[in-house]
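Second attempt. The first submission of tRNA-intron lyase had a stray character pasted in from the spreadsheet, which I only caught after the job came back as garbage. Lesson logged: always re-copy from the clean sequence file. Corrected sequence (331 aa) follows.
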Amino acid sequence: MKARRDGTTVVLGKDGHALYDQSGYGRKTEGGLTLSPEEALYLVLKKKITVIDETFESLITEFSSRSGFMRRFLVYRDMRERGYVILPGPQDFRVFRRGERPGTGRTNYLIRVLSERDLITFRDLSDEVASAVHMRKQFVLAAVDDEGELTYYDVKADVLKESGAAPDIPPVTAIRAGNSVITQDVAAFPDPLWFGTKLDKTRLMLSPMETLYLLERGLLTIDGDANGAAIREDIPKEDAEWKEKYQVYAYLRNLGHVPRTAYKFGHHFRVYSGEKKHSELLAHAIPADASMPMSVISRSVRLSHSVRKKMLFACAEQNGIEFIEFARIKL
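This time the job returned cleanly.
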C-alpha cells in the first residue's frame, strides 16, 4: 500500500481500512486511514506500506527529532512483535488484550514510556495509577535503557490490610543511649512483637523509631527525659528522613505489621506480617512530592525480587500513607 506523509502523521487511502479492520492499525477517516509516526514507521519497517518520496531512514530521521520518539517506537515495535494491538493512548499507549483489537475487544494496559534516567514524581505517578484504576486498566511503566533494552513494570497502589491488633505493651522505663534507649523491662516485649535488640538476657535496646513510637503512645519513660522532649529534638539532627520514616513506621505498627530496619537491602524497612518468620515487603518512606530516578527504582525492584519480597514506596501524606508497588513483569 502506498501512503503519503502529512507532517507528523502518515495517511493512506481507503485501502488502508483493511489494516485497521484486520490488525487495529491507525485511525479511520472518511478518506482513508491516519497512522501515528510509530505505526507508520513500523509498517514501513515490515514492508507493509511504502511512503511516497520517503524511506525508512528518512522517516526515522524526521520522526526521531521529536522528544522521546525512539523510546516510544521501540516499545511499539516490541508490543507488535509480541502479538498485541497497540494504539496511542492517554499515557503513551493503550494495549489490547492479546488477540483482541478495536471493535472486537478492549484495552488491558495503559503504558507510560520512560528512559532509564527519567525522574519519577510519585504524586504524578499516583494520579496516573488512580486514573488507570478508574478506567479498569493495568498501569505499566516501560523503561528503555541507552541500548534500547526494555523493562516493563506493573505499578499499582497497594492497600495494606490489618495483620492483627496493634501491640499491647505495658509502660516501660529506660535510660538513654545516644538516640536509642535501653530498658530492663524485657518481659514487656514478648518475641512475637519483635521490638528492640537484646543486649543480654536483661537488657533490650530500642531503636529511634521504636523509641518515638512508644513515646507517642505514652508507654515510655526515659530517665532524665521523662516526656522525651530531648530525644525527640535530637533524633532529627541525625536523620533527615526521620519524619517520613516515623509516619510509615507508626502506620505499619498500628496495622499490626512488624517493621524492622532494611539497611542491608538499601531501604528503610523490611516488614513482617503477623508471626511469619520471613519478611514479605520492603518499604521505603518518601515525601509524597518526592522524585526519584528510574534507575534507582530499577535497582530496588531487582533486589526485592531477588529476595522474594514486594517493593513498596510509602508516600507519606499529612492524611495518611499511600503505598506504590513496583513489580517487573513480562507482557
